[in-house]
Structure formats: structure tokens, C-alpha cells
Amino acid sequence: MTKKELFCEDCRGMRATTPKVTEISHTIRGEEITVTVNVPFCSECGCELSDLDVEEYHHDLALKEYRRRKGLLYTDQIKAIREKYGLSQRAFARALGFAEPTINRYELGALQDTLHNNILVLVNDSSVMLKMASLNKDNLSEKEFTTLVETLNKIKSDRPSETQQDGIIGYMVKNLDRLNRKVDELLKDSKKATHSHGLKIQPDHEWQIEALPKVRTNPFEPRRSFELEPSFSNWDETFLQLDNGR
């Protein structure tokens, strides 16, 4: 693999480079951020060389670290929120009351201010996005606003409400308790069945078969097929069958 060549001012020509692990500090909004990267050095004279790709890379690393420390959204997170609502960068900015180029700059890596970041975090909730877009309705065309409302309604219909979620959790807790009771009953029945069918426990606690019944009865064998896991819609029927001993 050919080493990358860069212009060396001391050697006055293109020279092969040798990467060295180097700590570089950036001051971002008054805070010093230090990152560790591979920096190219001249293979002949040993001086540090300028590489725009490397400089851009360690600057992006510093911005990423600053975002992590301050709890700011990353560029891909901002993009994901916008795309969830099917809006262009300019339309999304206008729906939030931002200047049109703002979202484009943020998605390209510009560091957002705290106020804009907080708004972006809040509008990740579709109900908040609807309120925000309604407040800035005049900034959107009729088609943009109508399409956004349709998208928001679809998002809302695709997920259970908080009340529905609480109901599902309550239903699961209630019926899991019933299932646990049924399992206890089956375990008690199994002990009786194994003893009545010629099974006894030896001193070493191993099962020994003395005689098998003419009709094989396995208390652990399911009385119905469980190939398909019960869905929420048929849980009542599932537990009813268990309660009836099917």
C-alpha cells in the first residue's frame, strides 16, 4: 500500500508521511476539548504536515465529544427526527420557526445552540410536533401542512396511547398471575400422576420406572398445540382453555 504524500514546507516538496498518535485540543464555546488522532509527519524531516482531511476529522471528533458532554443531539439524530415527519430541511426549519438554512447547517455538522436543541428534542414527540407546526402554520404551504398532519396522524395510530399501554401492562400482570397458578396446579397433578403410574424416588433421588401404564400419560405433555405463540387478541381464550384443563 502506497503511503499518502503531502507537501512539506521544510523540504519544499511532496513527501511520504508517517502517522503519529497525537493529542489535539480545540476550544469550543469556551470549553477545551482534547481528542487523540493520527497526525501525518514528514518521513524525511519529521515535521508535522497539514492534511485537510485529518484536520476536519479531529474537529468533528471534538464537536462530537462536546455534544456528548452537553447532552446535545448528534447530526444523525436531527436528521432522523426530520425524516420521521417526511419534511425537507427547509420545510422542517420553517415548521419549527427557524431560519430556512438552519437544519441544513445542523445536519452538515454545525453545532446547534441550546434553545434549538431543546426544541428539536421536544418535537421528537409527534404531539408536540403538531402543536409546533400549528403555531408556525403560516410558514408552511397548505400542501406541506396537510401532508405533515396526515403523517402525524399515521404515527399516532400506529402506536398505543399511554392509556392503552397501561391497560396492556395491567392485563399481562393479571393473567400472568393466573398462568403461574395454573402451572402450580399442573406440577402438583404431575407428582400425583407419576407416583400412581409406577414411578418412585430412589435414595439417590433418581427416577426409576417400575411399570408403565397401558395408556401412556405424560402430565407435562401439552394438551393443545403451542406452535404459535398466543397473541394479545386471543389471550382470554388461551387462559380460558388452561382454566378448563384443555
UniProtKB/TrEMBL annotation:
GO terms for molecular function: DNA binding. PROSITE patterns: HTH_CROC1. Residues 78-109 form the HTH cro/C1-type domain. It comes from the Bacteria. Pfam families: MqsA_antitoxin. InterPro entries: Cro/C1-type_HTH, Lambda_DNA-bd_dom_sf, MqsA, MqsA/HigA-2. NCBIfam families: CxxCG_CxxCG_HTH. This is Putative zinc finger/helix-turn-helix protein, YgiT family. It comes from Desulfosporosinus lacus DSM 15449.
